[in-house]
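Support request, priority: normal
Reporter: lab tech (M.K.)
Component: structure prediction queue

Hi team, I submitted a job for ANTAR domain protein from Anaerostipes caccae yesterday, and the status page still shows it as pending. I've pasted the exact input below so you can check whether something in the sequence is tripping the parser. The sequence length should be 182 residues. Please let me know if I need to resubmit or if it's stuck on your end.
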Amino acid sequence: MVHIFVLFPKQEQTRSIRNLLVRNGFEVTAACVTGSQIMQRAESLEDGLIVCGYKFADMVCSELREYLPDGFRMIVLAPQASLEFLDIRGMEYLPMPLKPPLLMEKVREMSDALNNAQKKKQQRPRQRTREELEIIEETKKLLMKNNRISEQEAHEYIQRRSMNSGVGLIEMAKMIRDSYRY
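Reply from support: The job had stalled in the queue. We restarted it manually and it finished. Here are the results:
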């Protein structure tokens, strides 16, 4: 799920854009009037989408972009004259007056891109820590020494035991290592 934030300097603008998004099937995480409110809500997140104006009470959109994690994307709604000066990575621009279908298309496009990035990130296998790699290596050496097998066979043995018992590879390596120590 993509976290969508709405940020405009006036509460009425924020409310109307939030309502527009909700009516079109988007779930809005927060509707704010200052950049610092967005930063507070976004600090524990890796990514999200912010629909905002050009200026807020405490900062401008380019400043906010600098404070947010790289995974965040912004759709900036501003007068055409203001948009000419902006060209920052991670930001898309739509001219005012706003055309709702154009905004919905842009929000859908960017939220789909963020969803795809989240799925790719989840599918990527987690890198093992140095400590975990050392545990596996130590267990393989014990198996190779005591059972007179190759490193490949030792690794396959740990994998097979792990899969058969439904225990993670690292946990199984620890169990095997501990059984040889006693």
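The chain has two domains: 4-123, 130-181. The chain is about 55% helix and 15% strand. Let us know if anything else looks off. Ticket resolved.
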